[in-house]
Amino acid sequence: MISIRRFITLFILLTTLTGCSVFRDSSTGAYFEDDGPPTGGPDPASVANAQPRQEPLSRTGNAPYEVYGIRYVPVREVPVGHVEIGEASWYGRKFHGRTTSSGEVYDMFAMTGAHKTLPLPSYLQVRNLANDREVVIRVNDRGPFLGGRILDLSYMAAQKLGVVETGTAQVQIKVVDSVKRGQAPVQAIALDSPEAVFFLQVGSFRLASNADRLKSDLDQAGVVGIRIVPVRIGQNLYYRVQVGPVRGAAKVRSQRGLVMNVTGMEPKVVRECC
Fold first, then answer.
1. How many domains is the chain partitioned into structurally?
2. What's this model's pTM, rounded to 2 decimal places?
3. What DSSP string runs through 84-140?
């Protein structure tokens, strides 16, 4: 029989270490009725990615800890470009306004997330492998602790990645570096290259009919150069809707704005092919 002291210790751990997934159905990824999406909130298209910057480690959340009898030892440093692939979940209104493991207040409308061992804070590029959407988040919390998941997303990050309805998704996460003052982001330098050719990836779908519908909407809005590219990932075939080719940063920005007016989402800039 569990002692009262051990129960209290476990309760404190579960309430201070976000781990919203602790309260979710691990078989489906669905949230319980006391958690979930908000009734309102900002338009996801108006919320920018987290902007990587150089920060000191948080005063809390970087020490070893234990949950469900498993001991976790957060790392103090991790190489830029470090990649993990696995399942991500998200947490919403139940935890909105609560204190995270880093000591910051959880804002479900911010571009943040939780990881079991990465330094707090860290910045991650997160890609949904099912639809190829990407975001950049700031990791400021610990979790998830169920189902072998590797990442918990804030509601807003999950919304932009298309994970809210499914509850979970297979993702690739990559550690990104801060952009030092006076230094341009790598992608901006690449876009300014006069010989570089890009495509704007607007969406990725399992059903060809959904890709055709998006292509039709873009056609009607006057977007030109639309193509549908079939891409196989594992056993699944996806239909990616892309606009291009687009050459140069000015043209990319112009076409990106036009696409966002139609879809409400920022398209991903990709190289030739996929």
1. 2
2. 0.57
3. EEEEEEEE-GGGTTSB-TTSSBP-TTSSEEE-SSS-SSEEEEEEETTT--EEEEEEE
